[in-house]
Design goal:
There is one protein chain. By secondary structure, this protein is an alpha+beta fold. It has seven helices and 13 strands. It is globular and about 60 Å long.
């Protein structure tokens, strides 16, 4: 089972059960069902079933259910909690929790005492194991994408080093900070000799004491990253990158 490394303790309070309506989406001009399904982490066939549709035909202004009606419980956020940690506690997914908490606009910004919905134990779903190789596999499909400093995290045609890493981890439900410095401190530091596939390798390219680049560990001589010279691609770390390596950070335990 994937685990997000975090040092603070986990504690929480289950309050009471309540009936929550399914999440909905209002169709806009130009929308197609498969794209709506993709954006809401479900399938077109499920949306058709939940809405009693007879085909994939939709029209502007139509309100569609994009999740199941679930009986939910209330959870009070405590020190150290993240959406990921809470999802593991209730054997569910980050996507499932966000789908029933429209008020959470930024999954990274929970606060102590916040009350959120969580699926009841009867509605929980199996959590798929994520490995470092899964992270690399997600990253490989972007090989050839260009480089753009401070690229928007919503873009997949161009990346900078940290938006690339943030993107591939989020595809597996793990939300990382935006910058390479922050990402270097998001998990647990491990010696380079113990680095594993998918770990984050951080660099100081200017030798000024500041982390300014990051890549994904593939093997002791290779990283997958987005560089200013090549965009997303593999790089040999034997020469240029070796002397500039600062630390290795493990996100998936």
């Amino acid at each position: 089972m994937k685990k997000f490394i975090i040092t603070a303790g986990l504690a929480g309070t289950l309050l009471f059960a309540s009936q929550a309506d399914a999440a909905t989406y209002t169709v806009k001009s130009g929308d197609v069902l498969w794209k709506i399904a993709y954006d809401n982490n479900t399938s077109a066939s499920q949306i058709i079933e939940w809405n009693g549709l007879t085909s994939a035909m939709i029209y502007p202004g139509q309100v569609l259910k994009v999740s199941q009606d679930l009986t939910n419980s209330k959870y009070t956020v405590k020190a150290g909690d993240t959406i990921y940690i809470i999802s593991q506690k209730y054997n569910t997914t980050i996507t499932a929790i966000l789908a029933i908490n429209a008020q959470i606009t930024n999954p990274n910004n929970l606060y102590i005492g916040q009350v959120i919905n969580v699926p009841s134990t009867s509605q929980t779903v199996p959590v798929q194991e994520t490995t470092g190789q899964d992270i690399i596999n997600s990253g490989k499909k972007y090989i050839g994408a260009g480089y753009l400093y401070a690229a928007s995290t919503t873009r997949t045609d161009v990346f900078d080093c940290s938006s690339f890493i943030k993107r591939v981890y989020e595809e597996h439900g793990i939300y990382l900070p935006r910058t390479s410095q922050e990402q270097a401190n998001a998990g647990t530091s491990v010696p380079f000799s113990q680095a594993r596939v998918g770990d984050i390798v951080s660099y100081d390219t200017n030798f000024d004491g500041t982390i300014d680049h990051a890549g994904l560990f593939v093997d002791p001589n290779t990283i997958l990253h987005s560089s200013s010279s090549k965009g997303v691609d593999y790089s040999n770390t034997t020469y240029y990158w070796k002397d500039r390596m600062v630390k290795v950070t493990r996100i998936i335990k």
